[in-house]
Design a protein that fits this description.
single chain, mainly alpha, extended
């Protein structure tokens, strides 16, 4: 495919793959959230307690773009990698921000070999899992 100037503007394989992943994550999130909304609305309708807010929540889910959904999905995946690993207490900590007062001077988490190794191991496991899912 070319544009008006004759330049090739065909999407790359990686762009197509990223778009496919975004759409798949978007569809999965929509089905999950709308199924929950449907269940709540059904039970409330049977008891006569349906309010407009429930329909507005469903509309908000449908108005999300695939890229917003993929960003939320990616953030959840990264949170799962970092879950349970304590931060260093610095205000700019990469793993978890301190609750209350923190130190300044930069994150020191990756100077701790055990912590860095755990993050790398979890990322490797996640990559392996996602690779197997992509092959299906």
């Amino acid at each position: 495919m070319t544009d008006d100037t004759g330049m090739d503007v065909s999407p790359s394989w990686q762009e197509l793959k990223d778009e496919r992943d975004a759409l798949a994550a978007h569809q999965k999130a929509l089905v999950f959230e709308l199924s929950a909304c449907q269940g709540v609305l059904h039970s409330l309708a049977r008891s006569g307690e349906v309010t407009r807010e429930y329909a507005d929540d469903a509309k908000a889910v449908l108005q999300r773009t695939p890229h917003e959904t993929l960003a939320r999905h990616d953030a959840e995946l990264l949170q799962s990698v970092l879950a349970g690993i304590p931060g260093c207490g610095d205000n700019s900590c990469c793993i978890s921000k301190p609750v209350g007062m923190g130190t300044n001077g930069g994150c020191r988490c990756f100077e701790d070999r055990r912590k860095a190794g755990l993050v790398i191991q979890r990322l490797g496991n996640l990559l392996s899992q996602r690779s197997h899912e992509a092959e299906r």
